[in-house]
Structures are given as structure tokens and as C-alpha cells.
Amino acid sequence: MAYPGTSQPLEKSQGFRLGLRPATLRLLETMIHCLHGSAGCHTNWDLFEKSLGEEINSIDLWSLFESDKQVTLREAGRFVAKQASDGDLLMGYSMGGRIALHSLLFYPEKWRGAIIIAANPGIADGHKERKAGDEKWAQLAEENWEAFLKHWNEQPLLTSPHGVPRTFQHPSSEKSAKVARSFRDWSLGRQFDLRPDLPKISCPVLWLTGTEDEKFSAIAKDSVSRIPSGRMISVPNASHRLPWQQPDSFARIVKDFVELSSPF
Known about the structure:
single chain; alpha/beta; six-stranded parallel sheet; 9 helices; 6 strands; 13% strand; globular; disordered N terminus
């Protein structure tokens, strides 16, 4: 099946294993472990459980900040891997996509495939400036939650004719301190540049962006060129929050990926 705005369908020649799973032969449901983004929450994935027809484990990443101890991105990746059985699928959006990449690289035995959505695998320079910028976001989240959400959603990256989807949920103010922690502990300025390590990812990876998200589409194109079984699809009429802006198209693409990466 080909999608509008893409030139090729997902198929075996792209490095994915073709597996047909009629309902009568499907003995086990696929478990997809889903990771939310910054200023998001795990319940954002609930929208897709029915449309995907697969079992979803929506992981609350804010639960990692129950103590004052710093949590690294690798530790977050390990936390996710511990919840998985061998052969599960992993899906991460934005910040969650960065955590997913760490889990794929450091705990590859767990995953038979992954969907990365609008994520950044790392930067080559500007780490100090990025940490300073993320510290400002952290302070705003701690001091004025409503102002934080307002300014966050007004970023050019997130503004689009589609607006903030009604189905996209933000954490409550009770989690503001944990959100602030994520901007400090998981700042892109603290993260190692994972791009040189992407060729080590052996499982099929589908990297999704919105056609209106030019920055992350360029990042995705470069990233999948480094992954042996990497594939990119840009979803039309969508920007950074593409799953919630085009939920039907998103669900169809993910369902196809699940089928093509099936071991059955």
C-alpha cells in the first residue's frame, strides 16, 4: 500500500519481513510500547488502541522522576526495555522517540521493530546553548504552568493550520516539576549524538514525520539513511504532532508496519 506523499509502499524489499496474519491464525497480539513527548502524557496514545487493533502499553515517562536522582536517557531506555518481552514493538514520539532510540541501541534484544515519530537523534554542536534554553523551559514550567503550556504551544514548530489537536492531552499542573526535570535530565544538550550509532540498529525502523515539519523531515531523511532497515514516510497535511493531526492515516501506516514486521 502506498500513501499520499510517498513514492513507495512498505514492502519486503525495504528490509521488512512480510508476514500475513489472518485473524484465525493470530494467536498472540502484538504489544506496542508507546512513549509520549515533552509536555505530553501517556494517555495521548489511548486514541489509537482501538484503531490499531493491537495491545498498547502507554508508558508514563513522568513516573521516572519520583526521586531527586538524575535519570539519564539510557536509564530511561532501560526502564522501557524492562517492561517489554522479546519481540515487542517500540513507538516513540519526539522526546519519547529519543528515549526509544536509546532503548533500541542499548537493549536491542527486546525489539523486533520500532516506529520513531518526529525525533532528533542528536546534535553535533550547540550543546551549551541547548541546555541553557531547556533550563528556561524548566524554570517556566516550575513557576507558571499555564504560561509554560501557552508558550510551548506557540512555538513555530508546533503551530500549524491544524492547531493543537483536541485529542492531544497535556500533563496536569501536578506534574509540572517532573516535566521540568525532563528538560534538565533529558535535554538534547546533554544527549550524546546518536547518529554515528544508528547503523547498529538491526531491526526494522519506520520513521514518521509530517510534510509540514521541514526540520524534522530533514532529520528523519538523514537518520533512515544510516539505519540498515530504516524507512521514512511523511504524512500529508500534518506537522510535528502528526499522530493526532492525522490519526486515521497514522493508524493505517502503523498497522501496515506491524503486519510487515510480524514473525507469524
